[in-house]
Amino acid sequence: MPNPLYDQLFGQHAGKATPFLYLPDGSQISHADFLEKAAQIAHVLTAAGVKAGDRVAAQIEKSPEALALYAACTQTGAVFLPLNVAYTIDELTYFIENSEARLVVCGTSQREGLLDVVTPLGARLETLDAHGGGTLMAQAARMETSYPTVDRDAGDLAAFLYTSGTTGRSKGAMLTQGNLLSNAKTLVDAWQFTSEDVLSHALPIFHTHGLFVATNIILASGGAMIFLPKFDVDQMITQMPHATSMMGVPTFYTRLLEDERFTGDLVCHFRLFVSGSAPLLAETHKRFEARTGHRILERYGMTETNMNTSNPYRGERRAGTVGFPLPGVDVRITDVETEKVLPAGEVGHIEVRGPNVFKGYWQMPEKTAAELRENGFFITGDLGRIDEDGYLHIVGRDKDLIISGGYNIYPKEIELVLDEQPGVLESAVIGVPHADFGETVLGLLVMEPGCDIDLDAISETVSNALARFKHPRKLLLVDSLPRNTMGKVQKNLLRDQYKDIFTPV
Ligand code: MLC
Ligand code: AMP
User: Fold this and answer.
1) Which one in 129, 131, 222, 386 has a CA-CA gap of 20 to 30 Å to 432?
2) Whose CA is nearest to atom 39 of ligand 1?
3) Is the C-alpha dihedral spanning 221, 64, 45, 172 positive or negative?
4) Ligand 2: distance of its center to the CA of 401 in Å?
5) Which ligand is nearest to the CA of 206?
6) Rounded to the nearest whole angstrom, what is the distance from the C-alpha of residue 156 to the centroid of ligand 1?
7) For ligand 1, is residue 59 a contact (CB within 6 Å)?
8) Cβ-Cβ contacts under 8 Å for 3 (sequence gap 6 or more)
9) In angstroms, rounded to a whole number, what is the distance separating the alpha carbons of residues 202 and 236?
């Protein structure tokens, strides 16, 4: 019985003793062992009443068991909804309520806070900690190690990934089995992954990059991963002699270059370094090549679309560009005002179409219609141009978005919290250059006349409301915010004024 995503990523490895995950403690997990663990979890899901199409929300640390939960959701036909471990209870409440999750899996320490959220919804709550402990695996251990895979087809939903928006409300991007599988196969071919590959995996597995790009490619190709809990330079350097390839956000590359133990000799056997999720400075690209002899392959993607373009595996990898459309993906540039398609060389909206493009935002038909055209093109919100050789250059963003260390941060979400604080008349949140994270968050506050502002109290409120990576690195009091004739805050002027605040020239 078919279940394309399960069959072609996971099921093809059933019974194989080949290595899948190498762990930092020196142990390893074979494909067969991993799939047996996943099957046991699938039985737990079924026993909990999870049916095909139900959402399973997971805020769990990176571990082999966390990955097996993804496999189990695929095998049972459930929709996997991974959540950043940094999210606060306030943030989680929205995702769980909005998605109408049937089952929530969280770390042991989050259980108490989440019980009050899931109980009124009639959802189940299970725990899974970083070392495989908790109620999920305790039940799984008693289950059979094979599970009858549930039928699905390419149009069925496989995952929800929440992505924030310019209004401050997060949207659940609905990804189908076909979206994920087509992109995984395209990337295996484009980047020539094989069962000989060993990928150094230090990305989180709750976002597109670490889960659907890195993990799905390795599953589809039959390779293995050195599965690290997070990016740690010491650990990366220690395990690099055993890897053939690495995928990372630009911060991974700048941090490696900061370390003198990271040499060309250390990675002379490497086949491929891939960067994405945020702009890789041409300067980083060049420094990396000078140090190692390898040219980083930069590609461009999004939560809603998986990967759209890539520099070539063979051929010139051009610094400062994100390469060519992947096979099967159409990319066009349209005028921001007239929406007409623009010729090569002109700057406009980047629009993409292909089997990789998501189905829409969960229960948000208007937002879906505003961004996903009837002819299948998705308006990415990024601005770009295609040069005379066909390379796509991302030149900016039409959306008010900050990308810090590869995490997306929507200023509106922070401004909504700041505006409510006592003594604050209005606020503006902007992204400013940061040597380590690429960009970081700066909050500008205008005081109500005659009021006092307690910046410490405001910071504390922000901490309780929003994940740590969204917190402004600095809050500044200003007299007023610059506005255009329409009354809109001119953030470009503010970004220019404060551009050196964290990177003094
Ligand atoms: C951690 N912190 C961050 C942060 N990550 N703050 C801002 N931006 C970030 N990205 C916080 C920590 O909580 C900590 O808070 C402080 O900053 C310093 O932490 P650190 O130890 O230096 O950070 P670290 O844990 O090493 O994490 C940095 C990182 C990580 C870059 C390794 O953020 C990371 O793995 N990023 C990858 C994100 C990713 O996978 N993006 C893909 C999205 S998919 P305190 O309290 O100590 O000050 C996508 C589509 C596509 O975009 O195209 O791929
Ligand atoms: P996310 O919503 O987290 O999936 O982030 C997607 C956004 O990340 C895109 O819309 C781009 O703005 C940005 N992005 C991804 N890859 C790149 C890249 N190689 N260069 C510049 N920006 C990128």
Assistant:
1) 386
2) 406
3) negative
4) 10
5) 1
6) 32
7) no
8) 11, 74, 75, 77, 149, 150, 151, 152, 177
9) 8
Sequence letter at residue 181? L
Cα gap 175→201, rounded to integer Å: 23
Is residue 505 pLDDT above 70, yes or no? Answer: no
Helices (H) then strands (E): counts for the chain: 15, 25
Q: How many residues belong to the chain?
A: 505
| pLDDT tens digits, one per residue of 35-75 | 999 999 999 999 999 999 999 999 999 999 999 999 999 99
Identify each DSSP E strand in 206-287 by its residue range: 224-227, 245-248, 272-275
CA–CA separation, 179 and 181 (whole Å): 6
**Atom number of ligand 2 nearest to Cα 401:** 12
Q: Which residue of 83, 203, 231, 356 sits with most ligand 1 atoms within 8 Å of its CB, as the best mutation to test the pocket?
A: 231
Residues paired with residue 80 on neighbouring β-strands, in sequence order: 56, 159
Q: Is 376 helix (H, G, I), strand (E, B) or coil?
A: coil
- What is the distance between the terminal CA atoms of the chain, rounded to a whole angstrom? 62
pLDDT score recorded for residue 1: 60
Q: 309 to each of 190, 326, 327, 353, 391, how far by Cα in Å? A: 10, 5, 9, 11, 9
- Over pLDDT 90: what percentage of the chain? 96
Whether 218 is in the pocket of ligand 1, judged by its Cβ within 6 Å, is: no
Q: Ligand 2 test: best mutation among 300, 304, 318, 437, most atoms within 8 Å of CB?
A: 300
Q: Is the CB of 203 under 6 A from ligand 1?
A: yes
Fill in the amino acid letter for 355. P
Q: CB–CB of 420/432 below 8 Å?
A: no
Residue 487 has pLDDT above 90, yes or no: no
How far apart CA 252 and CA 236 sit, in angstroms, is: 10
The rounded Å distance from CA 163 to ligand 1 centre is: 16
Query: What per-residue string of b and e applies to 241-254 under the rule 16 or more CB within 10 Å gives b?
Result: eebbbbbbbbbbbb
pLDDT, tens digit (0-9, with 9 covering 90-100), for 406-458:
999 999 999 999 999 999 999 999 999 999 999 999 999 999 998 888 999 99
- Looking at ligand 1, which atom is closest to the CA of residue 251? 31
The residue whose CA is least distant from atom 10 of ligand 1 is 405
Quick one: DSSP state of residue 134?
A: S
